[in-house]
Amino acid sequence: MYVAVKGGERAIAQSHVLLAEARRGDPGVPELSIAQIRAQMRLAVARVMSEGALYDEDLAALAIKQAAGDLIEAIFLLRAYRTTLPRLADSEPIDTSRMRLARRISAAFKDLPGGQILGPTYDYTQRLLDFSLMDDAVPATDGAPTTTTDEVAVAPRVTDILDREGLLEPQACPAGDPPPPDLTREPLLFPVDRATRMQNLSRGDEGFLLALGYSTQRGYATTHPFAGEIRHGAVPIEVFVEELGFAVEIGEIELTECQLITEFEGSATEAPRFTRGYGLAFGHA
User: Fold this and answer.
1) Distance CA 97, CA 157 (A)
2) φ, ψ for residue 221 (rounded to 5)?
3) How far apart are CA 106 and CA 275, in angstroms?
4) Which pTM does this prediction carry?
5) Which of 11, 37, 165, 180 is the most buried (most CB within 10 A)?
6) Would residue 189 be called left, alpha or beta, if left means φ above 0 and alpha means ψ between -120 and 50 degrees?
7) How far is CA 192 from CA 68, 202, 209, 275, in A?
8) CB 257 within 8 A of CB 100
């Protein structure tokens, strides 16, 4: 806040008017709709949902529109709205092995069981402007079939394959492990435990986390993991219903999952095998 600014409520009200005009831009140009933002700016929507800790594509698109494309502002808008929502139920832990895949790549297997699926990615594009996108006409298709997540079979996770072979360090949940804290409900108070730190990092700014990862892996650390598997697709969500005595599927959400693996040379009591790192984000992240 600019505490030295004078003018009171009248100046603030005028600032809001100017902000609305600047957001709208040239009135001769058609206004962006929420549906357009949701459908055509999916990566921005996914980032706002992940860092805003709320899976709702319409609200994320609304926040992007309200923030005039400033994703950091949009994330704060969604976080603020998230705090007003009641919690009706907790879902069951998701099973990403049931993911209907749109993308699946691995550096651990050249001939990955179930196949490598590149999906929609910028990994193999040249960093050159495509001026054909300036044409508002609908592009013609070449007749090639379009692949959707509904057409892609479920495939086993790479870490499950390694685990069956005894090549991966087991990570069973310890007995009596308390439920993790919820930063969307409780404020961040230091000192914090590892679960809280990781939860806070999961909502961190994408650029900051990228710089942090490169610094720790390639700059100052001795560990350089590689991608065991990166997958993106739709995962079913289930909620346990007390009256029925079992869990029911209430829908599905799009997720991106990353499992990193790195070598562990073993010890006097442990055989050499891989250890893992894990990340999960909303949408195509």
Assistant:
1) 6
2) -120, 165
3) 16
4) 0.82
5) 37
6) beta
7) 35, 15, 19, 24
8) no
Which residue is listed with tokens 């961040």?
Answer: 188
CB 201 within 8 A of CB 249: no
pLDDT, residue 177, reads 83
Torsion-angle region of 143 (φ positive above 0: left; ψ -120 to 50: alpha; else: beta): left
Tokens of 211: 């710089």
Q: pLDDT tens, 108-151?
A: 887 888 888 888 888 888 889 888 988 875 554 444 444 444 45
The span from the CA of 200 to the CA of 30, in Å, is 39
Map out the domains of the chain as residue ranges. 8-82, 96-282
Contact 105, 229 (CB under 8 A): yes
DSSP at 151: G
- Evaluate whether 71 touches 48 at the Cβ level (below 8 Å): yes
Q: Is 32 helix (H, G, I), strand (E, B) or coil?
A: coil
Give the Cα separation of 100 and 252 in Å (integer): 10
Are 237 and 218 a contacting pair, CB within 8 Å? no
Burial (CB < 10 A; 0-12, 13-18, 19+), residue 228, is buried
> Smallest Cα–Cα separation from 75: which of 56, 60, 85?
60
Write the pLDDT tens digit of every residue in 81-118: 999 999 888 999 999 999 999 999 998 887 888 888 88
What is the Cα–Cα distance from 203 to 44, expressed in whole angstroms? Answer: 14
Determine the Cα–Cα distance for residues 123 and 101; give it in Å rounded to an integer: 18
Res 210: pLDDT? 86
DSSP string, 107-147: SS-SS-TT--B--S-STTS-S---GGGG--SPPPP-SPPPP
